[in-house]
Amino acid sequence: MNKSHLFFNTSIGVQKPENIRNKQQACPFCDRDRLTNILAVDGSIILLKNKYPVLENAYQTVLIETDDCDAELSTYSPEHLHKLIRFGVAHWLDMEKTGEFESVIFFKNHGPLSGGTLAHPHMQIIGLHDIDCREKIDAAVFEGIVIHEAEGVRFTLSTKPRIGFYEFNVRMIDTGYIERFGENLQIAVHYILTHFPFKAGSYNLFFHHINGEIIAKIVPRFVTTPLYIGYGIPQVPNNLEWMASEVKRLYFNKM
């Protein structure tokens, strides 16, 4: 078994509903009475087994964030934001603790360039039986220009981005959820969708559990550059200091 690649089941993949572009497609997450294989519920938040497990040798779950199909993480109330992140992180770490997987990935797609298929706000928690995703991560991609640091939470803009250009990082020690973590995560998403210097309607949110820290990487998504696809060379823009200062001005100078 090749442990560097995930295998995608195309016969299942062609069955998946898609309504990010196909607006006529009904949303399966809105029809809550028909949801099956529910694992946990907290109000409008639901964790369930993925009905379309396209990844082989993996345990796939979906975290439905809210019952509002038109909602978005950047506009959640503080109460719902913190409940959601607590819920997701707890179930992600619990899956890790079972010892059944080489690694467990926790991520979110939003928008047509994110790689997602459904517009309804959701995340995914996936246990990988034979791939340790941590082996593919260089700690340097989480370092960068400090935008804000308080209450044990560090918010940065990457100076060595994993894919290239602009990547935000929010990190905290894994001793317990800190609300500042969720707040900074939300700020990064809000900035991407509202104030970004280039029109951005898509992003990914990736959670990592490395060396006793919980780290969220928030990445605005555009068409991926050919230098990265063809040669694996990330590009670093020359206006990182300006962007970090702009986020500080917009979100922290009033604090």
Automatic annotation (TrEMBL):
Keyword hit for Lyase: no
GO MF: nucleotidyltransferase activity
Cited InterPro entries: DUF4931, DUF4931_C, GalT_short, HIT-like_sf
Species per Swiss-Prot/TrEMBL record: Neobacillus ginsengisoli
Pfam families per UniProt: DUF4931_C, DUF4931_N
Protein name, entry field: ATP adenylyltransferase/5',5'''-P-1,P-4-tetraphosphate phosphorylase II
Residues annotated as domain DUF4931: 8-131, 135-252
Assigned keywords, A-Z: Nucleotidyltransferase, Transferase
